[in-house]
Write a structure and sequence with these properties.
2 copies of one chain form a homodimer. By secondary structure, chain A is mainly alpha-helical. Chain A contains 4 helices and 1 strand; from the N terminus they run ααααβ. Chains A and B meet through helix 1, helix 4 and strand 1 of A and helix 1, helix 4 and strand 1 of B. Chain A binds a DNA duplex through helix 3.
DNA sequence: GATGAATATCCCCGAAAGGGTATAATTCCA
DNA sequence: TGGAATTATACCCTTTCGGGGATATTCATC
């Protein structure tokens, strides 16, 4: 699962809207949207701010081989 | 292990210099340096370009609890 | 279909990332 | 201990990320 899908899924699990997620993580609403839409040029610190809400962070994982 | 440490470690394992790693991954030399020094505001796509050399990519992982 | 909430798309702009290059500082062998 | 290779720091410049706000568009519920 991609990061964008993962975050979207986590957000729904916690019953949050994009606006709420943005507020709680301290990033902009537009950022949350671009992130969930799979933008690849996001800044790591911002993504980490969001992931921190779920007790997670960015790390290196083995590439998915389809 | 942080991403910066991880990449530095991987690079050494493969016997590459920062310059070689930059050339092979298609990012700038300065980027490689900032990355290995733990800069937190890096762009995900660039980091992924480097990780791809090692068959890895960025993903969400549980936060390290010290 | 109507109403309202949630999400997506577009604009402008300041701040900063990343590239290149040049120059220190460091490391590492011979 | 000297010198080459590697790594770190500093500067300028272009690109673009990310914020905010305004405007669609989609979605759910009645």
């Amino acid at each position: 699962m991609s990061i964008s899908e993962h975050i979207k899924s986590k957000r729904k699990t916690y019953g949050l809207t994009q606006t709420e997620l943005a507020e709680r993580s301290g990033v902009g609403l537009r950022f949350v949207r671009e992130m969930e839409q799979g933008k690849s040029t996001l800044r790591m610190d911002k993504v980490n701010q969001v992931l921190a809400l779920f007790g997670e962070e960015l790390g290196a994982v083995k590439s998915e081989v389809l």
